[in-house]
Amino acid sequence: MNVLIAHQNFPGQFRHIARRLASNGHGVLGLGGAQAPGLPGIKLLRYELKSRPKPSHPYLSTLQAGVQNGELVAKLLHKLKKQGQAPDVILAHPGWGEALYMKDVLPDVRLVSLFEFYYHAHGADVGFEPGAEVGLDQAALLTSRNLLHLMNLERCDAGISPTLWQRSLHPAAYQNKISVVHEGVDTELMVPDASAAFTLADGRRLTRADTVLTYVARNLEPYRGIHVFLRALPEIQRRNPQAVTVIVGGDGVSYGRKPEGAANWREKLLAEVGGRLDLSRVAFTGQLPYAAYRSLLQVSSAHVYLTYPFVLSWSVLEAMSCGCLLVASNTPPVAEVLRDGENGLLFDFFDQEALAQRVTDALTRPKGFAPLRLAARQTIVQGYGLEQGASRYLALLGAS
């Protein structure tokens, strides 16, 4: 079977399924934007729009970009079809418009699309912060973004969402079209390791014998609760004078907006709380190579994860797979994988006192919480491993 996998940042979430399909003997062709990193051993077709005209209306920016991307991809597919190289099935992330016109070119080819998030002006990430007001322009912009999403829902043969909560955000009329399938994490690579060590930039070597508090995000920003964590950290340090805190993440913005009056959220928050922190016991690493990131999780005494009601980070699942003791915000979809007192510790996202107390409990009573570490690992092995994800993806694609 010949499978086309389309993702603006190919392979994106499809890294493992692309490798699995190729190892099973299927022909795999990637399709991505100009900056897509690609995957060794898999041919990649690229599309690139040289210039983007200004949208006729601000609300239409996402839709117009999607139409432009969809047109480029449709022309590439038309060329493949003329050359007799049309795929038998397509797996796509349609969020940037790539899948919009695929059915116009290949009406009989099965199209399976990944639906991560359906925008809402109320009840999800937008307006989550206390006092945040959602104006008409913002609400209308989100509604307009969903125009592209709705067309993708209509045109695909089957959809995928990584969690039940993410599926629940989509219109009820389409939810029976969407299967809940997480792509999975590598539970054979992300494992507990009592002999692991992590070396800080200043040469200090951390092991499981140390008290290490960890926090990980792609970028340090409110969507992943960095403001709540750093505001709670002075009290956490006061209660845990032996603890070293290692914070992983870049200074860019993956979600939401840049801060006002500062270059990034790290600088803004340190200007607020840095005077109350013992910075000799705090390390900001930036983004880490994967092997170093894994070692850090393996030496972690307690791992803090916060998120708005938004897409679930891979990092929280990888931390659980490494047997970390999770202290996490009680927000969906976190509560879908973490159960308080069973495989982790939950707290209200904005409750800094509860966060400080839960971290202190975790750091001062490690033996008492050892069963939670084991249960966290088992949760991932049993429900979020690569094999479970791959087998369900293969079934939806009609491959084996």
Using brief descriptors, characterize the structure shown.
single chain; 400 residues; alpha/beta; Rossmann fold; 2 domains; seven-stranded parallel beta sheet; six-stranded parallel beta sheet; 14 helices; 37% helix
Please explain how this structure is put together.
By secondary structure, the protein is an alpha/beta fold. The chain folds into two domains: 2-184 and 385-397, Glycogen Phosphorylase B (Rossmann fold), CATH 3.40.50; 197-383, Glycogen Phosphorylase B (Rossmann fold, 3-Layer(aba) Sandwich). The chain is 37% helix and 18% strand. The chain contains 14 helices and 15 strands. The chain has helices spanning 15-23, 61-82, 102-105, 136-155, 164-168, 172-175, 226-239, 265-273, 290-299, 314-321, 334-337, 352-364, 370-383, 386-397; strands spanning 2-6, 27-33, 43-47, 89-92, 110-114, 158-161, 178-180, 197-199, 205-207, 212-219, 244-250, 282-286, 302-305, 326-329, 345-347. The strands form three sheets. It has a seven-stranded parallel beta sheet with strand order 3-2-1-4-5-6-7, with helices on both faces. It has a six-stranded parallel beta sheet with strand order 12-11-10-13-14-15, sandwiched between helices. Helix 11 (334-337) links the parallel strand 14 and strand 15 (345-347). Helix 7 (226-239) runs parallel beside helix 8, helix 7 (226-239) packs across helix 12 (352-364) and helix 10 (314-321) crosses helix 13. The longest helix has 22 residues, at 61-82. The protein is globular. It starts with a strand and ends with a helix. The mean pLDDT is 96.
